[in-house]
Design brief:
By secondary structure, the chain is of the alpha/beta class. The strands form two sheets. The protein has a seven-stranded mixed beta sheet, sandwiched between helices. A four-stranded mixed beta sheet has the order 5-11-7-8. α6 runs parallel beside α7, α8 packs antiparallel against α9 and α8 packs across α10. It is globular and about 60 Å long. The termini are far apart.
């Protein structure tokens, strides 16, 4: 049985997939498996992956008949994986040679449920190191305690599934799957669930994941309706956190993060198609009214003036009775 399963979804990334696959080859080991999920690509990605299945040691190709998005593709990989540990990579990113054995050694040495790592962000030829926003490194910690404080960036704000490694027992407990169908912000409910419900985690200063930013086909670059799935994602965060035994302590952080992301999208609303921009305003107004109002008021009072005013203006918008997050 494999020691490590590496889950790599691909969708229309013919330009980048060869580099991704070369980096996987530089990380092979006889007890590693690479689950390549083709999310119904319409370019030559499928051909590239078919060749990789034959040539990359430990590769297994799984194809979707219908495009389901990143969350659904990752779930397919999780359901296929046989390893004692799991990790992720996106089909347009890449790994440093020998990174995966070092990553596996970290979690085996620490013995915790999951480990989070730093990464290198690549925008064109520019490179910048992005670190997990948690100061203590190399120690086993309680993930619930890493959610707070509410007014600072914490580990739940570093919502990159590929920046870490996870024990199989998280799959067995139902904590590692993503919300099917989410087209963006799919990592947000996922990382919150891990931090609320897993028993232990650690942060290590291991670098080796290269995240390609600014890809033209990425949803972060496309102002269409799929971007609005961030509302569904954060509604889920709020709903699940509200049911937590420590909801009073954790909800201010969840609401503040939701508001910050919402203000970000409203602040760059010109990149959306006009109909999507109108829908964004309407859905944000409805979402603000669904939030716990006492917590929301406290959050807005402590946000910077520009973002708080943006949200207050949107909250005053008329909302159709049937408006829900699409």
């Amino acid at each position: 049985m494999p020691k490590l399963s590496v889950i790599v979804p691909f969708y229309n990334v013919q330009q980048y997939a060869p580099d991704t696959l070369v980096s996987l080859r530089a990380n092979t080991r006889e007890d590693f498996e690479f689950i390549l999920v083709d999310d119904c690509s319409t370019d030559t990605t499928s051909d590239i992956l078919a060749r990789a299945e034959r040539e990359l040691p430990g590769a297994m190709l799984v194809g979707h008949e219908k495009n389901g998005g990143l969350a659904t593709a990752r779930n397919t990989g999780i359901d296929t994986a046989r390893g004692d540990y799991l990790t992720f990579l996106d089909g347009d990113d890449w790994l440093a040679p020998g990174y995966l054995p070092r990553l596996l050694a970290c979690i085996e040495e620490l013995g915790c449920d999951f480990v989070r790592t730093d990464h290198v962000q690549c925008t064109g030829r520019a490179r910048s190191v992005h670190r997990v926003p948690h100061g203590r490194r190399g120690a086993v910690l309680n993930p619930r305690e890493a959610i707070l404080p509410a007014d600072r960036s914490t580990s739940v704000d570093y919502a990159y599934a590929w920046a870490g490694i996870y024990r199989r027992r998280l799959v067995d407990r139902g904590l590692l799957h993503f919300t099917d169908g989410l087209r963006t912000a799919e990592d947000r409910p996922w990382i919150w669930r891990l931090h609320r419900e897993a028993d232990s985690f650690a942060v290590v200063g291991l670098l080796g994941v290269y995240y390609r930013r600014g890809v033209a086909s990425s949803l972060t670059q496309i102002g269409d309706v799929r971007q609005l799935d961030f509302l569904r994602a954060f509604d889920q965060v709020i709903e699940e956190t509200a049911r937590d035994a420590e909801a009073d302590r954790l909800l201010p952080k969840a609401v503040r993060t939701y508001c910050a992301v919402m203000a970000h999208h409203l602040g760059s609303i010109e990149r959306f198609e006009p109909a999507v921009a109108r829908k964004l305003r309407s859905l944000c107004a409805a979402a603000l009214r669904r939030m716990p109002q006492d917590v929301l008021a406290e959050v807005m009072d402590t946000m910077d003036t520009e973002r708080a005013n943006t949200l207050r203006r949107v909250r005053r918008r008329p909302v159709a009775a049937r408006t829900v997050a699409a």
